[in-house]
Amino acid sequence: EAIATAQQCGAAGVQFDARNEVRPADFGETARRQLLYELKERNLSVASLDFPLRSAIYDPDRLDDRIAAIRRTMEFAAQLKTAVVTVRTGPLPLDADSDDATRLSTLLEDLARYGNHIGAMLCLSAAGADAEQLAALVGSAVRQGPLGVDFDPAAVLLAGRSPSADLRALHDCV
Question: For the chain, give me the number of helices (H) and strands (E)?
Fold first, then answer.
């Protein structure tokens, strides 16, 4: 029903929630082909997959499971012929020399490298984060593959910041 609504609205693509709506484990080869066929019949494509996290991406609790799930989602995105997976980072570490900041940089480097290998790009969504801090993280911490920012102006407004100022700070990453 949501796909039909997207078509009626004139959308060119749809974003799926890969944790709750379209889970990679629930889609075998036949189901993936059927989904792509239904989208093609309506002149739609998969614009991106979103993978909502229950905690900060760098939280050490269950980190290996979280990263494995993100990797599976990136593989699934490539199979659905989209190159974008969005993930909320959670609050960014304030101290650039902290263990959390080091862990975040390391895992983003790993995910960017993996995405480059399989043809899917991770895009960070950090509406509550300082735009300059996020731009610095994306621009300097990750050198092994593509990494982007999922810019949501409504979320920026809700965080009490200026979307135009944040977009200026993030223009190279979006």
Answer: 7, 5
